[in-house]
Amino acid sequence: MSAQKITFPNKNDGDLFTSTEVNSIKNAINSHASDIDSLTESLGGLDELSLSVQGLETRESVITKQETSVEGIVPGPLYLWPQPVASLELNKTSGSEARQNEYKLQFTVSGSNFALTGSLFQDVRWMDEPDWEDGFTYQVSILNGLAIYAGWEAVQS
């Protein structure tokens, strides 16, 4: 008994494949698809891999900002505002569920009505409720939703 031959639609050259060859090709494709799924799962998903690569690129670096409304704050680098700011609105990326996410900020307050707003501060619990003072430079660390801060008075020369 000979193997049944089937043709593929939209083939102009009339190539014929045996059903055995088609099954071998299908099995190879399915095997590779399973390998890709397993690899993606073991890496924690492609989004997780993308965040990891982005984190490696910015790890332990300093990102200097001028604008006071920032989208896409990522865990890892220190965000630094060299000029005094009257307020900051900071919105973060989702971060990773599989590791610790630390957000670091440094800024100098300008004015008596300073406020931190944005998704970075949503559901954050502060060790001590902040009392921002005009002219002070602050460092803020938010690690897994818990925030601490310290402030230093400007040095008078």
Distance between the terminal alpha carbons, to the nearest Å? 98 Å
* Spatial sequence of strands, sheet with the most strands: 3-5-7-10-11-9
The largest pleated sheet is described as: 6 strands, mixed
Radius of gyration: 27 Å
Helix share of residues? 10-25%
Please tell me the total number of domains.
2
- Give the count of helical stretches: 2
Uncertain residue segments = 1-7
The ordered H/E elements are EEHHEEEEEEEEE
Specify the structural class: alpha/beta
What's the count of strands? 11
Tell me what you see in this structure.
24% of the residues lie in helices and 30% in strands. The chain is an alpha/beta fold. The protein has a 6-stranded mixed β-sheet with strand order 3-5-7-10-11-9, with no helix packed on it. Mean pLDDT is 78; it is low at 1-7. The protein has 2 domains: 5-42; 60-152. It is built from 2 helices and 11 strands, in the order ββααβββββββββ.
Task: Compile the SSE list and pairings.
Layout (H helix, E strand, L loop, with lengths): L4 E3 L8 E3 H24 L3 H13 L3 E3 L4 E5 L4 E3 L7 E5 L9 E7 L7 E2 L7 E2 L10 E7 L2 E7 L5
Quick summary of this structure?
The chain is of the alpha/beta class.
What labels describe this entry?
disordered N terminus; six-stranded mixed β-sheet; 157 residues; elongated; 2 domains; 30% strand
